[in-house]
Write a structure and sequence with these properties.
Blueprint lengths: L7 H19 L6 H10 L2 H22 L6 H24 L2 H30 L5 H18 L3 H10 L4 H25 L5 H24 L5 H20 L1
């Protein structure tokens, strides 16, 4: 088992993505879509999903330590059945899809994620007043389970649901932290069985984990100091570029 022979620019992009993974969990939810695009562009699409998953779990640990007492467990239990359905649908897709199809689907998912993010900004007051109900839990839970299984890209999808549930800030962050930690742990057996977690991917993760830790720690420090509006606009632009690259 040897370290993958990647170009210097590829390693730099992966290192930046690992840092972003950490920041996304402790400072700016949703920014992780940029990492999804970069990983899928640098690595084989299927392998990128498994490699990124392990880094996300490391970052999840920091998030649940920070917000461990703030989760809404009723909302998490309400989502659980639909999320499991979405995970199974995603696993079936990965079992039959090749790298080209996975790459294109990740591209489509990323564009959809950008659309969700823009709609959330545009219609946030209306969404916040919609409340939470079983149909919303079934729809968002299924889509969230599928997108996270195929592309680790459920952040903006689930943010829409948590926003509609009228969570306070800490409750929002705590529920999201526990949601993604539990979902990502659930995905591990599927990912191992599908062969998308590889020895080469584990070596990449071992190299990149320190950058995830740095990103998570600095994210906590930066949370109240960043110009978040400008940063999120840049993330959307680069995510669209990454998605178009994957599609074409």
């Amino acid at each position: 088992m040897t370290v993958p022979d990647l170009a210097v620019w590829a390693w730099l992009l992966l290192a930046f993505s690992a840092f972003v993974v950490g920041v996304s969990k402790t400072a700016i939810p949703g920014v992780n879509t940029l990492s999804v695009a970069i990983f899928a562009a640098v690595l084989p699409a299927r392998e990128s999903t498994g490699t990124l998953l392990l880094l996300l779990i490391v970052a999840d640990l920091f998030a649940i330590v920070a917000y461990r007492r703030d989760a809404n467990w009723k909302a998490l239990l309400r989502l659980a059945p639909a999320v499991l359905v979405g995970l199974l649908l995603g696993a079936v897709f990965l079992a039959f899809a090749d790298d080209e199809w996975v790459s294109r689907v990740i591209g489509v998912i990323l564009l959809a994620v950008v659309a969700f993010t823009l709609l959330r900004r545009r219609f946030a007051p209306a969404v916040a007043g919609a409340g939470s109900h079983r149909v919303a839990a079934a729809g968002y839970g299924t889509l969230g389970g599928f997108t996270t299984m195929v592309a680790n890209a459920a952040g903006p999808v689930m943010s829409m649901y948590f926003l509609a549930s009228r969570f306070a800030v800490k409750e929002f962050l705590g529920t999201a932290a526990w949601f993604f930690f539990l979902v990502n742990i659930t995905k591990l057996p599927f990912s191992i069985g599908l062969g998308i977690i590889t020895p080469a991917g584990l070596l990449i993760d071992a190299i990149l984990v320190p950058l995830v830790v740095i990103g998570a720690l600095l994210g906590r420090w930066w949370a109240n100091r960043l110009d978040q509006r400008l940063f999120e606009r840049l993330v959307i632009v680069f995510t669209i570029i990454g998605a178009v690259y994957l599609l074409f």
